[in-house]
Amino acid sequence: MYIAGIDIGGTNLKFGVFDDGLELVYSRVIRSVRADTLASARQIKNLIAQSPFAPSVIGAGVPGAVFRPSGRVNSGNLRWAGVSFGETLEKETGLKVWLDNDAQAALAAETLPGGSCHGLETAVYLTLGTGVGGALLIGGKPWRGHDNAGAELGHFITHAGGMRCGCGQKGCFEMYASAGALSRCAGGVRARVALDRAREGDEAMKKALDRYARELAVGLCSLYMVFRPQAIVLGGGVSAGGDMLLESVLSHVPSAYNYDAGVMRGVLRIASRQNEAGMLGAAVLAKMHLSAPEP
Ligand SMILES: [Zn+2]
Fold first, then answer.
1. Domain span including residue 82
2. Mean pLDDT for all residues in the chain
3. Per-residue DSSP letters for 244-285?
4. Is residue 291 over pLDDT 80?
5. Which of 49, 60, 62, 80 is the most exposed place for a label (fewest CB within 10 A)?
């Protein structure tokens, strides 16, 4: 049995096919279509048709809230409001679909053996990409809120009256911690390029990374205060900054009554699965939920 694992981002759509042992056997990356859910479902239908391995179920992660049991999805990055994308995708492909939040999917991948959250009881997972996604592991299980739309860690507010966010609020963490925020600190240079140049020693880009890391540290320290997790894991495009990013964040961690930079050094880590996490996690969740009847 093959499983399609799809990571629908605000910029790219990553399509993977996994075998029964969750090994990636085929993958493609294409540009995402925003706003038009039917066009997005048809993109996926075409990718399945082109794959040499025919999947029998689909798992898909989206950057937004997936409500259960309604199946409706809100995504600022994809400009979706209350859409039933899972239904549309099932109709187009004729396959069963498990739709979920992209960070929840990535967390599912990180809890597999070899992943950064494997065996942990409490962890906070953040994707730092086009937006900022979040997922929580509490008591060794994902915590999703009463309607599955919880753990939207990109949309807790770090700046009262701050920048307007796509979610409708002002001052969300996402506006200061996404790849776009890093790019803004770097005067418009793309986040990946800014990271590369900072690593090469470019002084302006090192300063940009420092400004960005200061904002990131504000959110990470608050999350540590709330959840006191064993790990705070950074995934998504900005996590390509690796140790340089972690060191920059740690330089902005204050000493508080129950943590300091030393404590945070033991907690903060980069996701073990970078580009594949979203696809793999979506496949894991599809395998988990679609191979047996739902409870
Ligand atoms: Zn927001």
1. 3-105+275-290
2. 95
3. HHHHHHHTTPPPBTTB-HHHHHHHEEE-S--TTHHHHHHHHH
4. no
5. 49
Q: Name the more confident of 167 and 45.
A: 45
Query: By three-state DSSP, how is residue 107 classified?
Result: helix
- The strand pairing partners of 60, in sequence order, are 6, 99
Confidence of residue 77 (pLDDT cuts 50, 70, 90): confident
Tell me, in angstroms, the distance from the centre of ligand 1 to residue 164's CA: 8
Distance 64 CA to ligand 1 centre (A): 11
Query: Is 137 domain-assigned?
Result: yes
150 CA to centre of ligand 1 in angstroms: 13
Position 160, amino acid:
A
Copy the structure tokens of residue 56: 């029998």
DSSP state of 70: T
Tokens representing residue 172 in the block = 């969300």
Amino acid at 234: L
State how many domains the chain has. 2
As a whole number of angstroms, the distance between CA 87 and CA 71 comes to 8
